[in-house]
Write a structure and sequence with these properties.
This protein has about 350 residues and is α+β, with helices and mostly antiparallel strands. It has two domains: about 180 residues, Electron Transport, Fmn-binding Protein, Chain A (Pnp Oxidase, Chain A, Roll), CATH 2.30.110.10; about 80 residues, no CATH class. Helix content is about 20%, strand content about 25%. The chain contains six helices and 16 strands. The strands form four sheets. The chain has a seven-stranded antiparallel β-sheet with strand order 3-2-6-9-10-5-4, with helices on one face. A four-stranded antiparallel β-sheet has the order 14-13-15-16, covered by helices on one side. Strands 1-11-12 form a three-stranded antiparallel β-sheet, with no helix packed on it. The radius of gyration is 40 Å and the shape is elongated.
Length: about 350
């Protein structure tokens, strides 16, 4: 499916928002904790966190302060301190609920049943349930020209992470931490680590044009896994050969059978159509015939031609009792439809 700018701008706003949020791929999910000088606290969920630099250690996130979360932005500008808390599966629903609009003085910590935690005299609350917590100090508030957004850049002042999440090379095992990622506004997934690659060197680039595995090895490039045991057919050398059967006879038999069935259906439709046309003509004739009585449902009546042959009339008199030209005998049903009968 190829979509132009004109097309997706014509979509329903909610549908377009979901689509555009998802096409950038998976993004980390974090709760940003703040506390104002008046002691009021708040939490807000974000998936716009980005790495800025390692030395000095700085992390940024994008916020729309005038339309999304005025309180969080205001408290960050006021105190210069805030926390970044990773979200994991055990409290995802509560974290997602922090996006709700609250009345003045209310806190998402309380309403979403998330516990405040303070550490090392840091001046903003952490989320106690989080496995990875970061304390930041505001360094720069950059107003972007697009969409009333601000890029908030903070310097890392404090980190709280379980030791067994830290790998030998300093990276974090976010799968072990049960971190959650988002692909859109309300669609979440868990992270699964499947490979760690070495730092590339120029000599490695030559190997991209060479086969990594022999032809007789079954490997799925998309999932990056050996999947011979998941296939519906044998893949080893001793497996039965896959032979293409001659399907000409089967196809010919199928065509003949289908043609026979189709012809029978067409004949039935033609018969039903002819019967319907005849019924319509008979009812047209009977409702325009001459009679001075109200026909009784279920009674048999006989239609005769008048002497001038331009008109007809309905009668109870049996055709065998006189010599009038008999056009047919009919019975009226409960739906006021005349049906022709054979005497």
């Amino acid at each position: 499916m190829k979509v132009s700018k004109e097309e997706f701008h014509s979509w329903d706003s909610k549908y377009r928002s979901n689509f555009i949020n998802a096409i950038s791929g998976y993004k980390g999910v974090h709760l940003i904790g703040t506390e104002g000088k008046d002691g009021g606290t708040g939490l807000a969920i974000f998936n716009t966190v980005v790495h800025i630099s390692s030395q000095p250690a700085r992390i940024g996130f994008i916020i729309k302060p005038l339309t999304v979360d005025t309180d969080s932005y205001g408290r960050i500008i006021e105190t210069k301190y805030y926390t970044l808390n990773h979200v994991h599966k055990s409290f995802l629903e509560r974290a997602h609920a922090t996006s709700v609009k609250l009345a003045e003085g209310e806190s998402q910590f309380d309403l979403c049943n998330l516990k405040k935690e303070y550490a090392n005299e840091f001046r903003a609350p952490f989320v106690a349930e989080s496995n990875i917590k970061i304390g930041l100090k505001l360094i720069e508030d950059i107003k972007l020209t697009e969409g009333e957004c601000h890029l908030i850049i903070g310097e890392v002042e404090f980190v709280d992470v379980k030791g067994d999440y830290i790998e030998e090379d300093g990276q974090l095992d976010l799968e072990k931490a049960n971190d959650v990622y988002s692909a859109g506004l309300n669609q979440y997934s868990s992270v699964k680590k499947f490979v760690k690659l070495l730092d590339p060197i120029a000599e490695d680039l030559l190997s991209f044009n060479q086969k990594k595995r022999p032809d007789n090895v079954v490997f799925d490039e998309e999932s990056q896994s050996y999947n011979a045991n998941a296939l519906a057919y044998g893949t080893n050398i001793g497996a039965p050969s896959i032979i293409s059967n001659n399907l000409s006879n089967w196809k010919s038999s199928g065509i003949r059978s289908y043609n026979h069935v189709l012809k029978s259906k067409v004949e039935r439709i033609k018969e039903e159509y002819n019967s319907l046309v005849e019924e319509y003509k008979n009812n047209e004739l009977l409702y325009h015939a001459k009679y001075d009585f109200e026909p009784i449902i279920g009674e048999v009546y006989h239609l005769y031609e008048k002497d001038n042959k331009d008109e007809c009339f309905l009668s109870l008199i049996h055709p065998k009792t006189w010599s009038r030209t008999h056009l047919g005998s009919f019975k009226l049903n409960s739906e006021k439809v005349w049906s022709k009968i054979e005497l």
